[in-house]
Amino acid sequence: MKRSIADIMGRSGVKFGTSGARGLADAMTDLVCYAYARGFLQFLHSVGELTTPGTAVVVGGDFRPSTDRIMAAVFRAIADLGYTPVNGGKVPSPAIALWGLEHQVPAIMVTGSHIPDDRNGIKFNKVSGEVLKDDEAGMMAQEVEWDDALFDEQGTFRQATSAPPVNPEVKTAYVRRYLDGFPGTPLTGLRIGVYQHSAVGRDVIAEILGGLGAEVVALGRSERFIPVDTEAIRPEDSELARQWAAKEPFDALVSADGDSDRPLVSDAHGQWLRGDVAGILCARFLEADSVTTPVSSNTAVEKCGWFPEVRRTRIGSPYVVASMAEAAREGRRRAVGYEANGGFLIQSDVSPMGRPLRALPTRDAVIVMLGVLLLARRERKSVAGLVATLPARFTASDRLKDFATEKSRGILERFPVDDDAQARQALDALFGACVGASATGIDRTDGVRVLFANGEVLHLRPSGNAPEFRCYTEASTPERANELCERALNQLRRLS
Questions:
Q1: How far is 200 from 94, CA to CA, in rounded Å?
Q2: Which of 354, 374, 407, 495 is such that its CA lies 20 to 30 A from the CA of 267?
């Protein structure tokens, strides 16, 4: 059988694009996952990145129930094309990406990140790093071929395919990156709680923090998958953090999402920092001379005045990666980026404590934890004290779940692209009462981001990888940012 990736996507409903493949686990059949992995590797061959038979391709996965099955399909696709599958095991996404970059081979991570466990995904990394938007058309154009005898009518392998033995060096190299890059035990004297839940990096994070001298306390470990979203933090995760902090003394709590590329960091009171706030502090620790962040991130990054250059992009790590690379080409020596979900990317080799830390231009959680904790040490402040040094700008975000993309588009079409005056009138009619001020400016970098006369911000956009409609707000107090987000979402619910 031979089909195009575009045709398989249409038939299966499993989206395939820049961020990889993602969809319902039941729809991600063995055949679909096998085909998508083949398509990705064929694309790499077509652009000259994968030409030598037997080249290694490293694969990892998270703790979702469907991950082992999908990894097996990916392993089979790699082997059938004449390459060598390397099983990185259950490790963080950045560990898989790091091993690929260090060995100059493709890296594939089976994960649905923070979304519920009835869904999953496959994230692809080229030999040169993350897949970018310019690669999408080439990937989609691939035609893949397979032997019909491999699969039954439901797209399941007729015979089970086994996984290669786990290569422990994939995890070891990621741990070593931080133990070698931060010499000695710079976290000695700190007591850190690690909210482990079902994060694939839960033990790795504890090992790194402990190896750097911290007293580590494991909290909330779960053998059932929990969809922790670092951008839209669940009320129960906020309450757990407050309870742990009230029960015993911690200098901070840390956690990560399912594939452990996006962090959570709290102060001593169990108050989780927003990802875009933690990103500013981490960039400060690394003494960045260029910071790239999506348009949805907190404007404190500009207002603090710490960075010679701040670059804004559309939402999504491929846009951040492309912008960081451009900054490096233009001569910036410490180009970094972060997203509102907290994932931090390093384009340049840096030496924050005198030892080299190689570039890792993909989302990483551990560098944020270390950056915040070590900046607090350097500044002789608590985590809360660090946050207090930033301008008083606070963000909130939430989303409407199970919200069809067509509905999202319909809402955005109310604000015509070619007529800002009419768009502002429509925005005032829908949200003016929520904000208590008129719209004064519109940014269409990604969705519709509106600046109101009182300085508050409302940003609306469809999710790029799930049937959700996201809302971001910014105000001068956290209470007001949350209130504005809630009011805006209630108004959107009435429209649907």
A1: 11
A2: 354
